[in-house]
Amino acid sequence: MFKFFKNIGPGTLVAAAFIGPGTVTICTIAGVNFGFALLWAMVLSILATIVLQEMAARLGIISQKGLSEVIRTEIKHPTLRKFVVVLILSAIVIGNAAYEAGNISGGVLGLETVFTNFKLAVGDSSINLLPVLIGFIAFVLLYIGNYKFLERTLVGLVLLMSISFLVTAVLTKPDVYLILKGAIAPKFPEGSLLTVIGLVGTTVVPYNLFLHASLVKEKWRSHDDLQRAKKDTIISIILGGIVSMAIIISATAIQSSEVTNAADLAKSLAPLFGDFSTYFIAIGLFAAGITSAITAPLAAAYVAKGCLGWDGSLKSVKFRAVWMIILILGVMFSSLGISPIEIIKFAQVTNGILLPVIAGFLLWIMNKKSLLGEFKNTKLQNIVGVIIVMFTVFLGLKSIFKVFNLF
Predict the structure, then answer these.
(1) Full 3-state SS string of 12-42
(2) Whole-angstrom distance between the N-terminal and C-terminal Cα of the chain?
(3) Beta-carbon count within 10 A of 406 CB
(4) How many helices (H) and strands (E) does the chain have?
(5) What is the biggest distance separating any 2 CA atoms in the chain, rounded to whole angstroms?
(6) pTM exceeding 0.90
(7) CA geometry: angle at 66 spanning 376 and 151, to 5°?
(8) Quick one: CA dihedral 131, 318, 88, 294, positive or negative?
(9) Which DSSP letter does residue 202 get?
(10) Burial class (CB in 10 A: 0-12, 13-18, 19+), 212
(11) pLDDT digits (tens, 9 = 90+) for 342-365
(12) Digit-coded pLDDT (tens) for 146-183
């Protein structure tokens, strides 16, 4: 058991990154509106995530470079290279700054389910102090700049989040047969398409590919570690998927269209299943918010470092400057109740373009013998990869259409 926990790490951080407040909210909506019918979409998302993240991890270990570094060095055409670098910086750095407010607000929702009256009156308006608290915790963990400490903290938070949502799902006493049926048999209930896209889109996340490739080289240095990294990736992402499915299962117990997020879910479950369910969801939502509040700035800093060719470690001034700016913007937007809607729309469009571009680039780079040698993709990995790239193109187009109300 000790050996197992010693070897888990980067994969768990990836799981921590994709189970944020956005995932919790879309899973809650899926459960409330469609019951167990969309569990299959989560299963499909997890399989696609495992395939892409395993490629990113293998690339990081063998090349000892982050994905953004490889892009900068392997794309030879200067115009194309500049376009891809600008796209990545826009989607990940600016996008994560916009989403950071949502990550912190998600953690605040969890705390507010249990604690209230943490607002400071300033004239006619008020400032919520809970985002400052969450921002401070994230700041301290990131500023320490020790990968092992950060890894262990996030592993602990992910386990806490997992236990919280799994216990809540068990408390609702779901029908196991219906769960298995929903997970295996794909169905599209009326009006469910956008929810399916949302479930996949919050799980197959572009910035996680950059984060994973950068994190594995902090922990592992040799091709002998590939099996450990693969096991870590598969176990962690499956665990993340089970957590997401547990949220859908918990939400299925509530037959009310008024439930739109996990905080509503906590309040709605309390009369049926007692205060325990409220506390477990509150803890889970807090853990989901704070883990994403840490990993989003961290991913943005790694991307900026690779794209711009910076040297140095997690403690370098430039690296710290990037995550500090993103964290501060998130705390400000969340504390003042400002929704940076135009920035979020911009981030959704760039992410919609970025996901198929990066998935396609990753597939191309994973076949370069000059970079990966004998560890390049197999034929089976390429076939599965092509299917996933085609799916990400569909997903990216749908997300762009949604932003511009074209669908």
Answers:
(1) HHHHHHHCCHHHHHHHHHHHHHHCCCCHHHH
(2) 49
(3) 9
(4) 19, 2
(5) 66
(6) no
(7) 110
(8) negative
(9) T
(10) buried
(11) 665 666 666 667 788 888 889 999
(12) 777 877 787 788 788 788 888 888 888 888 999 999 99
